[in-house]
Amino acid sequence: MSDEDKLINRIQSAARDCDEKSRPYFTRFLTEQEQAQLKALHFPVGITAVFFGGKGNTEPVRQCLGLIPSFYLDDDFGGELSAGAADMFPISTVTFTYRKCDTLTHRDILGSVMALGVERDTVGDIFVSDGKAAVYTTEKIAEVICSAISKIGRVGVKCSIGLDFELPRQEYEELRYSVASLRLDNIVKCVTNTGRTAAVDKYIRPQLVQVNSVICDNVSRILRQGDIISVRGKGKFILSEIGDIGRKGNIHISVKKYI
Fold it and tell me: What domain range is 143 assigned to?
């Protein structure tokens, strides 16, 4: 049985147990690909599936899945967790504070945390700012990190549980194109600045393209607004807007490139 099948079986079993016993269930942090696989599942009517990456994390990449009996949520729940529902997730934030003249990277921080022998799926997103860094993690691992780390590389750090600074925002470059259709090959052609044949032969057929974190080699797949396209070596993009059709029949689109 593949790892994907094991994950799906585990979540489906958890959903049945959650429904029968009327108690919530929470996973550890999931990759984007794992999230995409689980978003395609159907759960019992009384269970709401919610992905959450931690308080203050407005654009999470790694998220936990919560299977929550609907009576725990407000009647007007529209995908946004209330403070009470968010508190149900066993997610903590560890803040490292250090001198602004020192430099730490995402890799430095993740390496120090992994050196403690913790599992990768207990650690979520990491954000680095001047003199501050935040690590989203499970509640138990947050305590381990704070008790064990006082230095990252050569940089001395102070560690506390909780988020005490504003996270840096993801920045994008806005790109606009006119395409004959919303097929994958047309979109990849634009974002890689190549011809359609090169887009297919160099990127799509060799399985270097992912759509919503899943490898896609179907050149004729029709993309939708909000789809995330990753092209190895070229970057990550969001099909942010599908606009009007021009006089020549082409579709005007907007794409945001992650910076």
Answer: 91-161
